[in-house]
Every structure is written in structure tokens, then in C-alpha cells.
Amino acid sequence: GAGGAARAVVAALLDADVKTVTVANRTLAKAENLARDMGETVTPLPLSDVSRALPGSDVLVNTTTLGMTGQPPLDLPLDALPAHAIVADIVYVPLRTRLLRAAETRRLRTVPGLGMLLHQAVPGFEKWFGVRPRVTRELHDLVAADIEAGT
């Protein structure tokens, strides 16, 4: 994706000294705009060509709504990803998307989206209520159970 979530993920990767980032999007112009804004180490790519970038990728992050309940799945052939790759999906409903399940089948490390949801909520909650919540295992499990009950 190439929206706000993708922008945040790309910025975090660049802050972590990742040398190159490829942004694939269904609309190439959006990926090009994000790449232009983020710097020369960010390469835009049409989503239809993403499979050619996978063999050299250490991390794959889905920052689209694809795979979310009620949306079409994000069907990517993960066979080309290296065995050490990490697959992250910011979608949190369902908790384990088809993308994450496919990565788990390949025994790749996965990062589901619920953690990102909880941690990004902290500053907003603090501003609204004057209390900074802690993201704990108990909170994670409570929200996960609520999501599972609703799906």
C-alpha cells in the first residue's frame, strides 16, 4: 500500500537504517508519490509486479485493507521470499489473515496487526483521558478475544 500506514512503516524502516524499501501499490502513481516524498532509497512498484521484488526481501508488510474481513484477500505467492523473511500484516480483523497463514505454512516469522493497533492507540487515549495506558499481554488478549468473538 501507499497510504498513511505505508508512510509510517516506510519511515520506521528508514529510521531503522534499512537500506532499500520497495513500495508496491495497486495505483503506481501513489507508490511513486510516496517514494518521491521518502527519498531515493524507496522504489515504487505496481502491485502486479510485487513478486519480482520478493526474492531479495527481508520483510514484507501489508499496509492495505486487502485481507481484512469484508475485503478481497491479498493473494501473494510467498514462495519467492527467502526463508529468513518476516511477514507483517497491519490488518487485525481477522487476527490471522490469509497472508499470515500462508507465511506460517512456509515457517516464516509473522507479525500480526493487533500490536500496531494497540500501540498506536496509546497517545490518542492519553490525550483524551489524561492517562497513558500500558499495552500488556492481558490487554492484548482481551482485545483479541473481543475481535474473535465479533468475527
List the defining traits of the structure above.
151 residues, alpha/beta, 3-stranded parallel beta sheet, two-stranded parallel sheet, 5 strands
What does this molecule look like?
The model has no long low-confidence stretch (mean pLDDT 95). This protein is α/β, with parallel strands linked by helices and 151 residues long. The longest helix has 16 residues, at 114-129. It has helices at residues 4-15, 28-38, 98-105, 114-129, 137-150; strands at residues 21-25, 42-46, 59-62, 86-89, 109-111. The strands form 2 sheets. The protein has a 3-stranded parallel β-sheet, covered by helices on one side. Helix 3 (98-105) links the parallel strand 4 (86-89) and strand 5. It is 40% helix and 14% strand.
Largest sheet: 3 strands, parallel
Helices and strands: which structural class? alpha/beta
Structure summary, number of beta strands:
5
Helix content: 40-55%
Give the DSSP E fraction (strand runs of 2 or more residues): 5-15%
One letter per element, helices H and strands E, the order comes to HEHEEEHEHH
As residue ranges, the low-confidence spans are none
The count of helical stretches stands at 5
Mean pLDDT metric = 95
Span from first to last CA? 24 Å
Judging from the principal axes of the Cα atoms, what is the shape?
Answer: globular
Radius of gyration: 16 Å
Strand order of the largest sheet: 3-4-5
